[in-house]
Amino acid sequence: MFRPRILLLLPVLIFSSGWFSSSSLRKKNKTILLGITPKTHVLADLSIEKMRGKAGEAKRFISQNHFNESTCFLVDMSLPSGQNRFFVYDLEKDSITLSGLVAHGCCNQYWLEGRRYGNTVGCGCTSLGKYKIGNSYYGRFGLAFKLYGLDKTNDKAFDRFVVLHSHECVPTTEVKDDICQSDGCPMVAPSFLQQLKPIINGSKKPVLLWIYE
Asked: Above 90 in pLDDT, residue 8?
């Protein structure tokens, strides 16, 4: 169980409407995110090779669809949620410039073990696929960016109110246990979203976000 002082520091935000994000705070009872000594994980060669492959595919897609040609966001959902798996990728240098934690959807369960994906309204799951990052707005969780699904696996994202936003339950550094879960939104730490903000807002063309496994 969580310690009372942690419950006071991490309020549960569940309900949403309109362009307020659909994400909520779902946390495993045995997991305590505060007080953990941060641990930096080293990406396995397989993960790096897979990322470079996705980056190569992203370059071809971007050149054909008029997206930002220098930067894209790659999210590898096969990695543990306590490990950095949201990557800002420099397409010109083929290198990672920034990385952070990101939550995945709980699929309407109190706690989702493993991974499941979905693309129906109300499913509460993460949707794999490419997204166009749209305009920013301020909703229930503060700053957020609208997302437009570009594949059959995520083309209901706009209707589902799946957006890129932050929540205090997401740590700023890697942890040894799983982090909180969302209702399908890619949910990051507030400080990490502030780092993403100038990249998105400063781009003359849309930035590509690709969530894959």
From this structure: no
3-state secondary structure of 212: strand
Question: Could you tell me the domains of the chain?
Answer: 43-212 (2.40.440.10)
The residues, any chain, with a CB within 8 Å of residue 163's CB and separated by 6 or more, are 19, 21, 22, 139, 144, 145, 146, 147, 185
The span from the CA of 11 to the CA of 85, in Å, is 25
**Residue type at position 30:** K
Give the span between the Cα atoms of 107 and 177, in whole angstroms.
20
Average pLDDT of 35-40?
A: 41
Over residues 33-38, the mean pLDDT reads 36
Mean of the pLDDT values across residues 120-132?
98
Q: Which residues fall within 8 angstroms of residue 96, CB to CB, at 6 or more apart? A: 51, 87, 88, 89, 90
47: alpha, beta or left? (left if phi > 0; alpha if psi -120 to 50): alpha
What gap in Å lies between CA 160 and CA 135, rounded to an integer?
Answer: 16
- What is the longest distance spanned by two Cα atoms in the chain? 53
- SS3 letters across 107-176: CCCCCCCCCCECCCCCCCCECCEEEEEEEEEEECCEEEEEEEECCCCCCCCCCCCCEEEECCCCCCCCCC
Condensed to tens digits (0 to 9), the pLDDT of residues 48-83 reads: 999 999 999 999 999 999 999 999 999 999 999 999
What is residue 81's three-state secondary structure?
Answer: coil
- Give the pLDDT score at 204: 97
